[in-house]
Amino acid sequence: MLKFSANLSILFTELPFTERFAAAKQAGFDAVECWFPYEHGSATQIQALLDAQQLKMVGINTPWGEAGQWGLAALPGYEAAFEQSVRDTLEFAQAVGGPAVHVMAGLAGHVPASDAKRSYYSNLEKALRWAEGSDLTLLIEPLNGRDRPGYFLHSVDQAAEIIERQGLGDLRIMFDCYHIQVQEGDVITRLRRHFDKIGHIQIAGVPTRAEPDKGELNYVEVLGELDQLGWKGYVGAEYKPTGASAASLGWLAELRRLGIAA
User: Can you give the pLDDT at residue 67?
Assistant: First the structure.
């Protein structure tokens, strides 16, 4: 059976950030994830919130940079800022239990493709070196071009090719079913194809990013397949509730009833 984590950057946002941990626990989650937790407090403060609720942090992002950047890895000229951001995030991650770290690529539509690619590969290689010995997993996540036009990494097949062909085999894919369905479709086939390269999975309804049981993507089938494939990590609930977050969890109750969710 599958385990689920609550993304506190998008769930329980009707509450102050520090109160979302208790809300997630009360809703039945034993793990959380967050885009930029360091914006809400020190590692010591975040760890105290986790400890108080006996929660595990399973994923965080590197900083998004300046306005309009959404990451730095594929942006030439920002190498120093990228290094500092990654090193700071790795240090923070180690201090809050060792969650996976999503290394954000950035909006590179204004950059010549060859330059963006060169920067991205070089920066990812360096990030892996900086993470050596930490036991932290580094993730790369394709974002769909409708929601995030110009984002350098836009398909899961592209992500897999980078891992296979660029000597970056220690990277793993953040397989966000919402982004993949919007950009590429054929989620179950891509899940099977790239399963050995996946480091984390996220879900949301398509096309509105609402609850997973709303929209065109049948998560009973998708998550049933994931369970059959033997997924041992968490599945991140990263959706925009159409109402109060605690009242939006009928999808999870149904998965539990079907024996798919723990």
Answer: 82
Residues 6+ apart with CB under 8 A from 152: 73, 74, 105, 106, 107, 108, 116, 117, 120
Catalytic residue among 14, 66, 221, 238: 238
238 is catalytic: yes
Position 166 pLDDT exceeds 80? no
Candidate list 14, 132, 141, 254, residue with the active-site label:
141
Instruction: State the DSSP H helix or E strand holding residue 236, giving kind and residue range, or none if neither.
Output: strand 234-237
Q: Which residues pair with 236 in a beta bridge?
A: 5, 202
* pLDDT for res 211: 98
Q: Do the bridges between strand 3-7 and strand 172-176 make them parallel or antiparallel, or are there none, so unpaired?
A: unpaired
Q: Which domains does the chain have, with CATH numbers?
A: 3-257 (3.20.20.150)
Task: Say if residues 100 and 139 touch (Cβ distance below 8 Å).
Answer: yes
